Amino acid sequence: MPNQLRRRRMLPRSSLSPLFSMLSLMAGGMLMPLSAAALDLSDSLSFNGYARAGFGWLDGGAGQSCFQLPGAPGKYRLGNECEQYAELELEKRIYQGEAGSSLSIVGMASLYNAYNRAPVFSGQDGNVRLPQLYVKYSNIAALNGATLWAGRRYYKRHDIHISDYYFWNPSGTGAGIEDVKLGEVKLSYAFSRKDNIYQEASANRHDFQVNEIRTNTDGLLDVGVSFVEKSSKVADATSGWSLSMLHTQKPFLGGSNKLALQYGVGPGIGLGATGDLHAGRDVKRWRALESFDWQITPAFGGQALLGYQKDQAPGAGQNWWTAGSRLSYAFSDHFKLQTEIGHDRVTPDNGPTRSLSKLTIAPTWAMARSFWSRPEVRLYLTLARWNKAAQNAAASATTLAADGAFGNRLQGSSIGVQVENWW
């Protein structure tokens, strides 16, 4: 979910004035022509963004709701997203140094509106947030090309696209020094407080990363350690830490391969982000993810995911397994057929195994043949099946629950249309 900026006083008013001009442009940004690349509005101003919108129905005529297994941190997203969402980012360069350094201010507005709600962005229908607002001083020669930054920002995030799952996400409000070159590797440090607006209590978090460690031909390793201090706002809080390692092999079958290994203790179970501040040292999390995307021919591309996560906690531990893939085949420059299949299993320490399988078929209009090309307009049919344990674990009135849209049934479907673009 998008984050909200809380510390606007970190910048003087004179530095914020370009941001006010940027935000006045954002409201009209969705009406601008869609493009596959950033829009260069001037030599010193750029506009980037992401947007998806659509509508759908469950079988039986009910408004669409999404299929996600209780206890699973992600879901397979093709034909399984239930919101209009956009992120509109403007970056303004306000100083250009002679040696290549530059000072910039970045602002991003996000707009969220759930399906089946009035098309507004307030109250129960949606929201408008400011997930990013920061300044950065880039390419500092005295720091071997490093960047100094301060504010709220998305910081060194890593995700799996087909599940929209950010498995390593140390974003937050704070400051840092990023990408100090030391030989062939880069060093970074970030201090942050609150990760996002939904975090009820904050804690100091220190993030150290060593990036682009060469391991083999075309292979790079990123290593990060995150320390979460004991929160002064939580009575029974403890400190925690996490370790994350990500190996990326590129090129790989015309795309790339990612292998992630992560471990966290106490509040470090967020694995880069801040986890539960009440978690003691006996609460631990292990995670392993293998993901690769490919473009074997100009027409045939896709992405696959295999993942495992183990949560150790007194009376509340569980294991999560996931496997899925999206295939994309282009019959012409403007028509693709996409399919996505995914399966999740969650086994609590003190309960039966929950399972959910989901299949989507999506005829797609596109601007190019490749898997990653956008914009896309998709018609979709999604089929899902789950077991009784998943139904019993689902929150009341949600999709899988016995008092939800499908009642006591253990299967269901949805149809709809969606447009997605980034630029």
TrEMBL record:
Alphabetical keyword list: Cell outer membrane, Ion transport, Membrane, Porin, Transmembrane, Transmembrane beta strand, Transport
InterPro entries, alphabetized: G_neg_Bact_CarbUptk_Porin, Porin_LamB, Porin_LamB_sf
Membrane topology: Multi-pass membrane protein
Highest taxon listed in the record's lineage: Bacteria
Localization in the cell: Cell outer membrane
UniProt-listed PANTHER family: CRYPTIC OUTER MEMBRANE PORIN BGLH-RELATED
Sequence similarity: Belongs to the porin LamB (TC 1.B.3) family.
Record protein name field: Carbohydrate porin
Originating organism: Herbaspirillum lusitanum
The organism's taxonomic lineage, starting at the top: Bacteria, Pseudomonadati, Pseudomonadota, Betaproteobacteria, Burkholderiales
